[in-house]
Amino acid sequence: MTETTADELDDRVRGRNWTVRLDPVGRGSTAVRVSCSRPNCAQQRLASAAAGRQAAVAHLKAHLKAAAAPRPQAFCACKAESCRGHLGPDHRQTRAEPWRCGGAVVLAVVADREGRWWQVVECCSRCAAATPGAKVVSTAPAVPRPPVGPQSRTDRAAVTTAGLPQFSAPPPAASGAAAGPGRTPRPRQAPVRHGRATGKIAQRVVPQGLQPVVLRDELIELGDLFRAYQQRTEPDLSLLADLQDRKARAFSTWAEVTGDENLRLEARRAEQAAATARSQDLNRTGRGGDADGPAVARLLTTPTQWGHARSVLAHVADHSPLPGPEARLLVLMLTLRTAHSGTGNLVGQDITSLGLSDPHHLLDELTGCGWLRLPGTADELLASRPENAVLTTVPSLLPRDDGSGPFTFGKKARAKLSGWAQKVTSDKKLRKAKATPATRLLALTLATRTTASGRLGPDGQGIPLHSLATCVPVDPGELRHLVGQLTTADWLAEATLTDTRLVGRQSERVLPLTCPLT
């Protein structure tokens, strides 16, 4: 095997290396800060270490997805960082024998066992294998062999080593005429291709005879653009989303022309990829195309989660067993706690923190009508603490025989949605303003009906009052009072209530709690 020493690698381009870190914000706070060593990555501040780890991993995955493939000509980034492979046994001095890198160039992820940092290194596969806990996520394509002519073996070896660098020996030459003493096999002639240009996209060859010609040209061009994007050193998620949109349209047309259902499925996947890229761009810049908007790190980070939040509000509006805003808010919070399996643990503070005028009476009514089941009494639930949480059941949310239920999100998403709703209803300024349960329910509803910059309603045109009334069952006169409370609590920066709609915008301080309309 032909191997390359670490010293011989110094003339090559240095491998990439970046780190995503999770650090505490300060003493006396559970908040954490997520930072990335890549340029132009803004810091994120999360309420807890668990939320910070999820955000850090999501940020790392976004980088890996958008990063260019490992470069065959790169030398190990870990060499510059003094990894154990390039150091001696005592980890203090360079090896007496040079460490020999080997194998293909890879992108590897190394994570701290305690979940405090995640590092990506571009290195050789031998260094990745020597690093404890390293996980290879992508491998560089094989370096093409230089053309072999009628030279001697020594000459061919010189050509190989003088061309693009290789960590391991090149593959054997293609079989040809038997070589006699002092002779080398005759190289195969490359086939001469005639006809129109061809290309590849998404591992598919674009047929030469594909009609219309404009579709064939679009597919070939898109394949070239995607390959060029993979060579970028920094991601451009807005550009990637536009490319995925073009791919979705082109593959949809291709499917119509050929009748191939697989192409139609590929078009749908491209649409989903475009939405994901835009979501990541929105989370990274916080503006979603609004250049004048503030940068926002949202508690719920994806359009899918925003849609789930709206689906729970709509479900509660249609299936609440009791009238009135107080019952609606309690039903909403209980639904979020039990949405995944129909059961969930609650403590008294979960109920008393909602500001209900008579929580005991409401719990009795919910259990009396059969909507809620408790293993004991309402008093026992209200007196419970975290060490003796009460398992509650909502029969209508229990999975059916086929395992399905009214919601499509899983256990982790349920916890995120429940935490989001708790964060809204327990907002410090709402509590200091002694906001009523109806006001908190309105705050939850408005958080799901804003633009990325915080304007109320689709395209910032406001929310029709009849639409608001489905989620917040109050009359127009009381609605004006609720809007006033939200303005006083700095939840709404602007608010105008007309006879038909509520127009305005959320204050910047609550933008992290919003679920933008997409």
Automatic annotation (TrEMBL):
Biased composition (Low complexity): 174-190
Organism name: Streptomyces triticiradicis
InterPro entries for the chain: Post-SET_dom
Domain of life: Bacteria
Residue segments, region Disordered: 163-197, 269-292
Chain ranges of the Post-SET domain: 72-88
Record protein name field: Post-SET domain-containing protein
